[in-house]
Amino acid sequence: MISAHLCSARAQMAHSETGMPAWLPKGARLYLSHIAQGQTLRALGRDHGCHASTVLRQIRIFENRRDDPLVDNALRKLDHALRQAPVKMPQRESRMMPLCSNSPSLPPDSECLTQEALAGLRHLLRPGAVLIVAPDMPKAAITCDQADGVPECLAAFDRNLAEVMALNGWISLRKQGRICSYVISAAGRLALRGQADQDTRDAMMQIFAPDEELPTRRPRYGLQESPVAVLARRRDKDGKPFLDGAQVQAAERLREDYVMAQLENVVLIAAQELVAALETRSVPGSNLGRPGTKAARARVLDVLRDLGPGLGDMALRCCCRLEGVEAAEQAMGYAARSGKIVLRIALERMVRQYHKMGEEQMMIG
Questions:
Q1: Which is the most buried residue in 81, 104, 197, 273, by most CB within 10 A?
Q2: pTM for the whole thing?
Q3: What is 106-149 written as a DSSP string?
Q4: What digits encode the pLDDT tens for the residues 168-207?
């Protein structure tokens, strides 16, 4: 049984300037800053060092994700908390009750997140494990069918912890209804992998004496850094960046469209198979049919059509599924150190393709 150590709403606010919890992802911060706090797209772009259209795409991603009941409920509670001035509650009323879907309380803070959300994700790694939640349930449960067909409860925790997991994209909606079910997403597996790496490093720190030097490790990208971003830091023999800003932005744009198109849970298939599935509207998994989802799938389809096989597979693996260049080389049978060249060619074509689409394609409505 996982117990959620909930904190008061005021203690959860890690950044006094924005009044938002520290665990909140960047896209959700931009969404709430625009919707709840009324900041303009241009102002947010200046504050975060990006173009207003990039901010708009991030906001649109979370607007489309509000079809997910957990994401919608978490954003609604955060919106409610940000619109209201902080009020100091009496000591006897400051204890947080179990959260239902109509509670304005905020999800757990960062400390609870790292300790309990990741523990819940580990249960979801079990084959057939799903997280179930309903509007009238103050708790979320992770169950798994046994050999005799009887479901086994693996864990139970407060509903707001499940909202944190959904808002960070660690779980994805599998079935929506009176009882919603969720499965672990690719981002959730990456989060567990990053936590395992940190635990390994902490164990090594305990083994080595304080005066001994810890063996250096080759840096690897994590949740905040894609393979394209790592490759963009490299330089060619002339000292120029291996990838320019337009190519990196094209990769980020394809990743955003891929997430908005709800393709993260599609089983790993070739680019041309995904093109065929998009053309025939036979994509497996959730297909809510929102206007933003349809438009994002159309943009992904146009890009993959233009790239064709080979280039499309490399872009799909490295830009969308965040697979390392070396791993993509091995999976596709390419020669060593050739994958980065193929990826750069694909990014060059993606820049031209997105330029043809124009900014009108990125506007809501």
A1: 81
A2: 0.49
A3: PPP-HHHIIIIIHHHHHHHTSTT-EEEE-TT-SEEEEEEE-TTS
A4: 888 988 888 888 999 998 888 888 887 766 655 555 455 4
Q: Name the residue type at position 312.
A: G
The count of residues in the chain is 365
Task: Assess if residue 82 is contained within a domain.
Answer: no
Residue range 304-322, pLDDT digits in tens? 999 988 898 899 888 888 8
Cα radius of gyration (the chain): 22
> Are the C-beta atoms of 12 and 81 separated by less than 8 Å?
no
For residue 161, the cross-strand partners are none
Q: Tell me how far apart the alpha carbons of residues 8 and 80 are, in angstroms, rounded to a whole number.
A: 15
Burial label, 341 (beta-carbon count in 10 A; 0-12, 13-18, 19+)? middle
- The boundaries of the domain holding residue 146 are 99-211
Give the type of residue at 297. R
Which residues are paired to 13 by β-bridges? 21
**Look-up of token digits 């938002």:** 20
Number of domains making up the chain = 3
Out of 166, 182, 211, pick the residue that ends a domain. Answer: 211
Residue 73 domain-assigned?
Answer: no
